[in-house]
Amino acid sequence: MKLEDKDFLQVVTNTPLVAIDLIVKDERGAVLLGLRKNRPAQGFWFVPGGRIYKDERVVEALARIGRDELGIPLGPEDIRFLGVFEHLYEDNVAGAPSISTHYVVLGCEVLQPVTLEQLPFSQHEDWRFLSVDELLVSKDVHPYTKAYFKENSETLALKR
Question: How many whole angstroms separate alpha carbon 32 and alpha carbon 45?
């Protein structure tokens, strides 16, 4: 169930959100990044992903987020679970003052091939693949995206 904007802002104000981030690599090992249109992380290059809706099973969310973000539905067989991460932002989707956003994120490596031509633009202004070395030094890549590629990252909550 997707909430109305005012109801969603109440949730953001009072609870953490649960999301899935998709780490996609091409045949060279470069990582897929999208230039975020929306808050939080607006204007940064970030891995694709999305939140899990109330009453939506994780497997259903994975299929929907894959379709919305990558143009292909994903199933459990299409990913490798990387761990649980936390993302804490000082802003929120509505840009409302004094309301932070807290995400608990399931990091998943996508095992299916993805091409730039198939990608939708609903959440991102542009797409690109960057090598891990390039993204780690770029000031335009969000620190939470960089954390997926750093050992002993501060954002890592749990890891298998």
Answer: 9
